[in-house]
Amino acid sequence: MTSRRRFLAGVWPLGMAAMRVSAAQAAASAPRGFEQAASTIHDAIARGDIPGALLHVRTGGRVVYERALGRKDVTRDRPLALDDLFPVASLTKPVVAAAILKLSESGAVRLDAPVSLYLPEFAKPRVLASYDAKTGAMTTRPARRAITIHDLLTHTAGIHHGFVEIDSVFGAIYERAGVVHAPRVPLAENVRRLGPLPLVHDPGTRWTYGLSSDVLGRVVEVVAGVPLDAYVSRTIFEPLAMRRTYFIVPAEERQHVVPWHGTTNGTLRATAPERRLSRKRTLIAVTTSVSSMSARRRVATARSISAERS
Predict the structure, then answer these.
(1) 236-270 pLDDT tens trace
(2) Which of 3, 29, 39, 90 is catalytic?
(3) Annotation marks residue 106 as catalytic
(4) CATH class in words for 83-310
């Protein structure tokens, strides 16, 4: 975490500065200003803070600077390329939120509705009162109210993430119930297992980072009647020209996927990519290219301007 903060502290001022200049100014300053950003990234790579990075600057509808630095896989010593695909992890959450809001606009989903209206396994939620780590025995109490779609969108439902290395109590509870963060269990089954588990707190009373977006993803599937990846591709990715953005990475694109990296005994290593390359519809995560994310912003901005003029 310290190395990540050090890297971000070095590059964020350059990113903020780029947002305040015109296309002509950006193009003129590219050799000087953006090479400074590249130098900061090089330093982070040399320290072993990150394996690599893709620096992409677009303003006024055109790319003014683009450069791939470092490696996509430090274990196999594979260089990073401009057309590589990155897992965007929790940036998947706003994608799923947009899918829910589209269903809300059409009247298919009510934001104030209890989630149990769509997923019965979330009826009669309960809040954890105590837990015995030795036996796994726990006591719960009824939640003060039902979990709503709005609670899921704002991460105030009380649903935990279940990572045992971060929270041993809820990690153990989720592990015992078979709630996993791996592709061996489909999304529908994982959410079904999650439904009866106790909440961290009463819905709407606190913010808790957890699996709320996974539950929303399952709501999309139930209401739309199609898999989440199919609905999002048709209603969000395709209209925004995000042509290389996937929930399930196709076989022909897998060579371009940048694997997860972690630190073991102070050494940066690539981890197995199976979690996001699975063909199963599992705990949801988007993989995309920088050009696709750039296209999303360009098309969305153009549509916003068009709507304002009309």
Answers:
(1) 999 988 889 988 888 999 999 999 888 888 888 88
(2) 90
(3) no
(4) alpha beta
